[in-house]
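Changelog-linked ticket: nicotinamide-adenine-dinucleotide example.
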Amino acid sequence: MAKIGSTPSVYQTVIQQFNRAADRMKLDPTIRKILSVPMNEVRVNFPVKMDNGQIEIFTGYRVQHNNVLGPFKGGLRYHPAVDIDEVRALATWMTWKSAILDIPFGGAKGGIQCDPTLYSESEIERITRRFTFALGNNIGPEYDIPGPDVNTNAQTMAWILDTYLATLPPQMRHQSIHVVTGKPVEAGGSVGRNKATGQGVVYCIERWAQDRSFDLTSATYFMQGFGNVGSAAARLMKPFGSTLVAVEDHTGAIANADGIDAVELTAYVAKHGGIKGFSAAAAIDHKTFMSTQADIFIPAALENQLTAETAPWLSAQVKLIAEGANGPTDLNGDRIISEKGIDILPDILCNSGGVTVSYFEWLQNKRAESWELDVVDSQLRKKILGGYDRVQGVADELQVDWRTAAYIVALRRLARVYKHRGIFP
Ligand code: NAD
C-alpha cells in the first residue's frame, strides 16, 4: 500500500508548480497575487446521529479558489487525509483545469475528514445530508457546483441534490438540479459521466501514442488506484490491446505479466471492496509495484506518490506517466522523471475529462436536455484534445515541460480575463 501525506504539503506543491510557470511566463504580479490564494474557505463542524444513537461531530471543508471564468466547480472527497491544505490544493488545480479546456467554470473542492469504511450506508447518507445542510448557500447551481471524487459517487450526489432542493421553495427545485454533477442518470445525470475521467485519460494516451508512433496494441501498463478513474481507464484501454500488468490500491498490490483483465477485476473490486485476494494475479509489495517493467504508468489514486523516494524506482522501460489522479507527482518526482526521459501527461490536462462531462451535465440540466453517449464522448474528445494541442503548443513555443506548459495555458487565459475586467473598485 502506498504511503501518503509525505512532505512537502500538497498545497506547497501547487504553489511551487504555479511559481515555476508564473516566473517562466512573467505573469503580471497583481494577477499572481490574486491567484496565489483561494477566494473563500468554508469550514463546517456538524453533528450526525450514528446508528447506535450516539452523536458524532464531523469537520467538512469547501474551498473556492477562483470564479473569474464561471461558477466554482469541484469534487467532494471523503477520506481521513482530507484537511484544509489538501482541499486548497485540489481547489486550485480545478481552476487551472477549466481554464486549460476553455470550460466556463472556476475552481473549488471540498470534503469531509473521515474514513467512510467505518460507517454504514445510512450513516454515510446522514453525514452527507448534514454536510450539505451545513454548507447551505455556499453551494448553488450558478455559484458552486460539487461533484464526485475519492470515496464519493453518484449516490452521494443524489443525496446532496435531494437535501439541497429540500431547502428551496418548491417553485425553485426543478430549475436547480444542476447544483451537483455526477448524479445518477435517472436523477438528472449525464450518460458518460461515470467513465468520463478515465475516458479523458485514455483519449490523452491515444493521442500521445499517435504523435510518437507508439504502438498501443503491444504496450504494457500498470495502474495505481482502481476506483472510478482507474477502473474506467483500464476497461477503456482494453480495446487497444494494451496489457495491464500490475495494479495497486488501498488494500495492496498485485501483478501478472500475462495480463490482468480489467473487467474481471472491476467485478471483483465491486464485490470485495479492493483488489486484495484477486486470484488471477500474485501479491507484490509497494516497491516492486512501483518498479514494474511496463511502458505506461497511470497513477489514479492519491497525491504525492511520485517523489524523491519513489520516482527513482520507476523502471527504464516506462515511457509515459498519464496522471489520472490529482497531484500524484511532487516537484522532486517531476525532476527525476524528466531526467529519466519519461513523458508526463499532467493531471490538470489528463484527468480533466471529469470536469468536462460535468460541464455537459450542467448544460443539459439548464436546457432540460439529455444527450446521447456518442455526443458526450465526441464533445469530450474535442475538448480534451483541444487542451492537449494548446499545452503542446506552449511546450514547443517556450521549450518547457508539459506541466509548466499546462499552467501557462491556464494562467494566460485567466490573466486575459483579469486584464479586461480590472479590479473592483
Ligand atoms: P475512488 O474513490 O473511486 O478510487 C480511489 C482509488 O484509490 C481506489 O482504488 C483506492 O483503493 C485507491 N487508493 C486509496 N488510497 C490508496 C493508497 N494509499 N495507495 C494506493 N491506492 C489507494 O476515487 P476516484 O474518483 O477514482 O479518484 C481517484 C483520483 O482521481 C483522485 O486523485 C481524484 O482526485 C482524481 N480525479 C477524480 C475525478 C472523478 O471524476 N472522480 C476527476 C478528476 C480527478
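Closing comment: Example verified and attached. Residues 1-2, 4, 148-151, 197, 224-230, 248-250, 274, 300-302, 324-326, 351, 354 surround nicotinamide-adenine-dinucleotide (CB under 6 Å). The first strand starts at residue 40 and ends at 49.
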